[in-house]
Write a sequence for this structure.
């Protein structure tokens, strides 16, 4: 007997304008499972399933493989996840539109050159055609944006410190009128978006990231028309600015990702004016340790980070790494902790980590969700051990 609020597989396929064969294929390959299966094998779907199907079909339209889609929509029935995912999908569509606009303009310019009898550089057209087929980089951008969103969301939802991380860092920045600021590894620009109304009008800020996709997100969020901001993609180990260019450099959770941390510190110091400040954030060995234990308790093979980043550049060794390049260095702790009461934000955080969890969780996702739900029932406490090094050249 059909349950209220449920659609048969035929109705579901008709609503989505796809075939029942496609619905069965998604079921058999664990891309989209029905919410209810009768003892006789009849499959039924809900509006939440329809929302997830929207994601699947959009990603398919953008050129992603079904294997990629399965990974990208793993926990796609949660309302908060769906909201964040839809925002990220919108970014992908906007990126596609931007690429097509560039291509259209290039074609117009080429036609005009041909009409005027000028020589056409066809290599530029080939480069743009290559750009239009960059599904793998789009997947990487989606995952990077999704991971950042998952991490920020968990902290925003359950932090005990009412003064958020980004406003707190801003409080430590000696931002004054007329100064030149560089942020390396700016990500999607959340730091500046949250503090934009506090910025002086007369200030010059260069936002940089090694990922052009993340930089595009930052430009879109902050606004390319704001004259205070310049957006430029580069690696902080090779900064394309002259010596003594900046009064303040910000490196928020960046240095431990650098292949050569000493080289990055040397470059940052080089572009700082005498007396300029560096603010670089990191964390200590106890940061989020309960999350690592939770994941390994579920499956001892899970390691949420193949490289313990605090061992590369953390609270315990950061001063030693920075001391050859800066004269004054002090550590300022951000006092905070988390009390997580819902499973899904914690699951999204775990799935966003740089470890091997996606080798073991997808095939046991429902078991993992039940495990996390039990742990968060009544509140799951998480230690935070983060802060910033305040440095002066």
């Amino acid at each position: 007997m059909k349950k209220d609020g449920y659609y048969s597989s035929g109705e579901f396929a008709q609503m989505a304008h796809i075939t029942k064969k496609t619905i069965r294929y998604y079921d058999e390959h664990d891309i989209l499972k029905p919410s209810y299966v009768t003892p006789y094998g009849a499959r039924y779907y809900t509006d939440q399933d329809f929302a997830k199907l929207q994601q699947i079909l959009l990603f398919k339209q953008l050129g992603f493989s079904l294997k990629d889609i399965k990974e990208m929509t793993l926990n796609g029935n949660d309302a908060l996840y769906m909201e964040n995912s839809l925002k990220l999908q919108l970014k992908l569509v906007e990126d596609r539109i931007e690429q097509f606009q560039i291509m259209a303009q290039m074609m117009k310019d080429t036609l005009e050159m041909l009409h005027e009898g000028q020589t056409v550089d066809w290599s530029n057209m080939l480069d743009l055609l290559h750009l239009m087929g960059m599904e793998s980089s789009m997947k990487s951008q989606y995952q990077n944006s999704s991971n950042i969103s998952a991490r920020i969301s968990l902290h925003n939802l359950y932090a005990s410190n009412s003064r958020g991380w980004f406003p707190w860092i801003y409080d430590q920045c000696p931002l004054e009128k007329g100064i030149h600021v560089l942020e390396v590894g700016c990500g999607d620009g959340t730091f500046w978006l949250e503090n934009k109304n506090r910025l002086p009008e007369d200030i010059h800020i260069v936002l940089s990231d090694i990922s052009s996709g993340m930089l595009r997100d930052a430009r879109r969020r902050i606004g390319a028309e704001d004259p205070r901001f310049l957006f430029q993609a580069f690696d902080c180990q090779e900064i394309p600015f002259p010596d003594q260019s900046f009064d303040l450099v910000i490196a928020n959770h960046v240095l431990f990702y650098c292949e050569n941390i000493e080289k990055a510190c040397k470059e940052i110091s080089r572009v700082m004016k005498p007396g300029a400040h560096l603010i670089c954030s990191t964390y200590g060995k106890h940061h989020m340790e309960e999350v690592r234990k939770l994941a390994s308790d579920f499956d001892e093979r899970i390691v949420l980070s193949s490289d313990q980043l605090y061992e590369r550049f953390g609270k315990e060794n950061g001063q030693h790494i920075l001391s050859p390049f800066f004269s004054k260095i002090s550590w300022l702790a951000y006092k905070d902790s988390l009390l997580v009461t819902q499973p899904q934000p914690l699951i999204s955080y775990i799935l966003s980590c740089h470890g091997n969890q996606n080798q073991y969780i997808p095939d046991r996702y429902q078991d993992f969700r039940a495990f996390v739900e039990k742990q968060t029932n009544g509140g799951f406490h998480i230690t935070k051990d983060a802060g910033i090094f305040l440095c002066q050249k």
About this structure: The chain has a mean pLDDT of 85. The first strand starts at residue 7 and ends at 8. Residues 284 and 310 are 6 Å apart (CA to CA). The chain is about 50% helix and 15% strand.
